[in-house]
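Cross-posting from the modeling subforum.

Setting up a comparison between two proteins and wanted a second pair of eyes on the formatting. Protein 1 (sequence, then structure tokens):
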Amino acid sequence: MLRGLLFKLFLVFFSFSVYSQENTEEPKQINIVYGANFTKNEKEYPGASIFSKDERQVQFEHQGADLWCDIAIFFQKENRLEARGNVLLKQGDSVEMVSERIDYKGDIKLAKAWGNVVLTNSDMTLRTDTLRMDREKQEAYYQDNGTVIDSANTLTSKIGRYFMELKKYQFLDSVHIKNPEYILDSEQLDYYTTSKNAYMYGPSTIVGETYTIYCERGFYDTKVESGYGIKNTRIDYNNRIVEGDSVYFNKAREFASATNNITVTDTINKGIIRAHYAEVHKAKDSVFATKRAVSISVQELDSLYVHGDTLMITGKPEARILRAFRNAKFFKKDLSGKCDSIHSEELSGITQLIKNPIIWNGPNQMTGDSIHLKSNLETEKLDSLKVLNNAFVISLDSVSMEGYNQAKGKDLFGKFIENELKLIDLIKNTEVIYYMYNDDDELIGIDKTICSSIRITMENNDIEDLTFFTNPDGDIFPEKDLPENSRILKGFVWRGDERILTKDGIFDEDDNNIELVVIRGIDNPIDIDAEEKERSQNESDPINNISNNKATDPKKQKIPQKVK
């Protein structure tokens, strides 16, 4: 038993000794491969050995890296080297760095290069004046402006860090990418030289031939001009501005889409679409929107709101067509309505309400098999109204608030003056029930008449006068002489509780309770938030010197124009 205990103690001691040796291993010395001419200068370089080239350059080696130079000042005890003149540092077969001078510390494997520094590997070239290379971490970084050139792009920034193993750059402050097809500017950008993918953090703008993108957090594939933004994103695309919580863009497909809290602005017709999902198809000059979708257009300082489960806007600016499908509704001052679908043409100025249409002009309810509204193409004001087949007009008696004024016929034709309905003509088999009052609001009687056609003159959305044409047949009945069941015309259906009174009334409960999808973050192999936290705690990190007062509001950002 004692022997077993001693054996275990020996194992513990041995393991601790090996662990201690591994963790206290001395840094490896810089090795002289070719020293050429040797001298010393204790006055200027005490303790240093000075080597200078002959027909060959001086050469050193350190843990997989080789260095050549014209003159080397080697501090062997400090394991430190100062290289001067035509300096070349090679690491393996992939990384080369040339400069006028390099200071190299062997203990921490850190090289600092000055003067026309050029770092190259198989797929990119980095140029700067001063560059630090940390061979332990396999990182290189600059803080005095640098330029990176690869097969696709030319990238410049004030501060940059290169992660050699990941082949990733982290550019900071005044990042600029120049490509024959576009220009990208950003405050911070991560760039992968193999995939040519860019991850943007902070105010960023991309200007292409047919588009401009702004975002403060986003992804962009620089090879195919495709990407998305997930913070304060805006795309100016094909005479439209697309904004949303998440916005996607693809140049090759001529396509953009947006998710959650979307606004699509027509910059020519000044129309707006709001929704929680939308698509813009450039080739078809169309917009598709759903999830609490609403189209907003201004007509004489009075906005028209059109809603449907699905909205589609197609056609060139001068010939736009708006379609609202399923559960379609609209609202503007003194005029609202609902139906199964709406079809509105910019070119003709005609808006059709299709299947089970109903409109309210003020308190007046109008129904029929089909309803058309026509706008004046020059003034863009409402011009006329058609209710075709089974036209029926109903309004609650505004005095008694009990009876209903009614008029019906085969068709109805209305005329708007200054956006106010002034005349209504009902034709073919017309009937009227109308409550008549004197100037003291005392009921005179109830007019019940049948004739060929009726003209109703309106004032402030109320009936001012009735004119009967062609053999009217009817009478004015005292209230007591006209039974309740005779005060209703055949086909009467009062739907006053459905009247849309506000712009928010076009949405039903399902629209107002939509659960928005969760926007995923950028799928970046590097945890940028963890990096930012670590950096903020490092006072010496150069990014902490960047001014924090730069505007992040996209409306305040100056969007550069592409140079043609």
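Protein 2 (same layout):
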Amino acid sequence: MSTQPTKTLCPYCGVGCGLEVSPPAQPGKATHRDSEGKPMWKVQGDRTHPSSQGMVCVKGATIAEALDKDRLKYPMVRASLDEPFRRATWEEAFTLIVDRIKTVQSTLGSDGICMYGSGQFQTEDYYIAQKLMKGCLGTNNFDANSRLCMSSAVAGYIQSLGSDGPPTCYDDLEQTDCAFLIGTNAAECHPIAFNRLRKYHKKNKNVKLIVVDPRRTTTAEAADLYLGIRPGTDIDLLNGIAYLLMQWGHLNTVFIDECTSGFPEYAEVIRHYPPQIVAERCGIRIDELETAARYWSESERVLSLWSMGMNQSSEGTAKVRSLINLHLMTAQIGKPGAGPFSLTGQPNAMGGREAGGLANLLPGYRLVKNPEHRRDIEQFWGLPEGRIAPEVGLTAWDMITGLETGNVGLLWVAATNPAVSMPDIERTKAALKRSPFTVYQDAYYPTETAAYAHVLLPAAQWGEKTGAMTNSERVVTLCPAFRDPPGQAKPDWEIFAEVGRRLGFAEQFPFENSAQVYAEFVQITRDRVCDMTGLSHHRLAEQGPTQWPCPAEQTLPQINKRLYTDWRFPTPDGRARFGAHHAKGLAEPPDPNYPFVLTTGRLYGHWHTLTRTGRIDKIVKMHPNPFIEIHPRDAKKLDIVEGMRIEVRSRRGIARFPAKVTQAIAPGTVFVPMHWGALWGDQTEANALTHPEACPSSLQPELKACAVQLIPLPEEGTLSETETIEQSDSIAIAFAPRSAIATRS
């Protein structure tokens, strides 16, 4: 085996940091081992990667520690959820899945089949899943956990600019005059991108940093101006800034007249947002609002960055469009240091969007509803006209309600953990329990979702399969396999392709390796905004990470490209479009019975539902337990002190957390991290509280806010019998006793 390091990409967030991974044994050096003495791959930052420049956070640095912990190595099956799993062969597992697909097709039709995928897929996995589901099976019922993450950004880009795709790049972090961060705790959730901005900001005192967030986060601590707005008032704030820009005459009228449409309608909306009203609604001072508008108006290059605080909202698309409006009215787009920049949540959510990996998308940034787009894909895939359904498929939440109504006969979940991450989790679990047949494909066992599966399929994960990933700035990196998968685990795309072949579509799945899959995929992007026809596994291996667009005729790799530098947009008339949106506020505002707004988020070291980071000792020690942040004023009213156990109740369920009394959270608002599922704690699920109300455009649930009440628990941490709300049995019961899990819980 070679002792040379392998250049790859971190499989956590969408920053897309380059990593170098070296074998445990190196000539003349002691073997690198984990805390249990097992040989372990060594990980460090790749200094040549253009996005991260050698920097790496604790998650990337410790990733190798989880490679061999609690791995699912063999297919497992059972006839019902009441039975234990037994080991099966791949032949038996494939036969079960194919037979069940055929049965569902004959009883419910193809729309009774659903697949729920993940932004942790490689692009090749995503692409083959689309070909299988949307092409061969003729159902658009493929959605991904990006629905819970980036779908509002997708809808906002498409509606405002004509296409998905951030028009900016990380180079802009070091060329802007004013960085406007809203709904993102980038210092913890996208730390390496934020580090680049922070270093630049420190060196250039004239550069302004504005942070908008109900919590005074680590990100907010670095700001020149912190706006601690009330949850749900983002559009009020953005329209209020627009009001002042228009009042002061800080508009680029040439750009508005020549390059946009819809401004009169937008101007009519923003006249209703004078400073007095906006400041009162947002819970900020008028002078703070005016300072934000002044920073924007006086800057030649304004860069905005956002993430879940904007996207995870019942008006998420409207929020995104309201932010883009500010760029359009001041022509802050298509030039260095300027533009709207969504910070992608997952490592390959961008690649998933390129491959069509949401229920409303088709590969190459095409839309299911567009007849021409459907014909393009059908012809490319060699399928009869009309095979791709004209209706948008079921979203992730639609799949849950489809299980409730009996309209879903087969649910295939891969590389994600909806039994923790979906809203209204008790309802989600009840629906999963009703599923007639669930296939769960993952690298780890146990997970919370595995308790609801009939078939478990072992998947190869990071470092065990070769494929491409695209980060937030549209840079594509090849991620080579540097070790064999454990047991009988297979790459996700191989599993999907084999099912397709067994269903009679051998012609559509002739691939022998992932390089062939990628070679086909890039051809489908020809002449699209995301044109990648110039890319291949070989070229990415030779020249390194490369940013799209990268058409076939482009011979040299380029990085730090921006979209729309000519101020022409991929809309029918070539103009960007203003969106005129009034603020509607939270879908579930507080009331006398539920007087607090709960908001949720990530912690620096942990990732999503702990499937990987919960198995890494260093990170567990860094963040051993969940908690609830509460402002001292609210804590005093309820006689809550630091460390006291608090029961949090919403209209849907309960959870319990130790109190963290801090002025970092606004009065009337509380915060809990979203990571801890039932496998890792007792009644510590944030999503036991959240609701599924979603944005009408993006269909992204409002995971960021719901109304709750707080009840201090007696010292022993239990309520009296009459006060206790009945809860469903812990999901951990579904698993055989495991001392390692019990210890961590």
